[in-house]
Amino acid sequence: MRGGSIAVVGGSIAGCAAALAAVRGGAERVTVLERADAELRDRGVGIALQADRYEELRAAGYVTPEMPWAPLTRRVWSARDGDAEYGRAVGEQPFPFRAYSWGSLWSELRRRVPEDVDYRSGAVVTTVEADADGASVVFGDGRRERFDLVIGADGYRSVVREAMFPGARPAYAGYVGWRGTSPDVTGLPSEGRDAHNIVFPGGHCMIYRIPDGKGAHVLNWVLYTSPPRIDGLHPDLRTPTSLPPGRLTSELTGHLRALVADHFPPFWAAKVLSTPAGTTFIQPIYDLEVPHYTSGRLALVGDAASVARPHIGGGSVKALQDATALEAAWQDGGSWKEILESYDTRRGPVGAAMVGLARRMGAAQVERTPDWSSMEQSRFDAWWRDQNQGSDGRSGFGGHSMKPADG
What we know:
30% of the residues lie in helices and 28% in strands. It contains nine helices and 17 strands. β12 and β13 form a beta hairpin.
């Protein structure tokens, strides 16, 4: 089907990919509505794409070899072992991933959005109102604009999702991710080609190199653990939010820094504790499974749809795959109904499976951590299999393949 006016609410990675999908699918007019003014600020965080999923997305035209990346080949899980500089490895596993920075990946996707797409910065959409054959977006200043289809790419606090399923909001998982990026990449084992998971009772911290966008690298890390019961903090996390540097209390940062000092091997403790405060923030962890990816003339992509905890290493893959599936449904369908039903059928089950897998991994890696002091490779392998395999015996870690034979 050709033609139609499309609004994409949200202009980050998922939004740019959805705009590309709409253009390639044959939409006549595409408008991207991004609430941030001017360029999106580089979030300074890492994104990892599993190698096979990268190849599928490259073949589909959503990523390219030119996008700056750093190779990862192995993941080493380590616990503190006295004064041993790097700690004791409790398990190792192959890790064929490509590491990106959020900003560079978004910038490359943004550049690929055709010039005739109306990309509007500072466009704050407050509500979306669907009707029988289209939908209207309502802006913060009261203006309204109508489209044949509205695609929600506006993240885990999506206003498009709220229009589709009122009250369906992400639920707080009970723990947070403390994130940071450090310019200090000196002394990394294996020349920085390994990802490292530092484990401790009640959580873990994943650390790996990412490109800095200027031809060098920075160290990206995220530490998952339950926050202390600080008055005024914990209840706030139940409503989807984030805590940028300016909102981090001294009590919370003091607790996290003490945790690192007590439980991390000396080398990794030094890397995390020397990270500039201005590049750290708190990301409360949420998840949500939506009933459908479409409703009437509304559709969801990325975290506006299913919200999976980040342990599965497939968040950005999912957003790009959603766009790929939307494009395919568009090219195959002869009507809006056919397009949207096909897209929902392709992506709804995948989103639900990712949410389920991420919950199992969150339980194993944060909520009910094993006794790391007695962990060794064979026990580690069994522990990993228990959380990683679905009911069909297959894994969605790193994202599900879009090939039918692979599920």
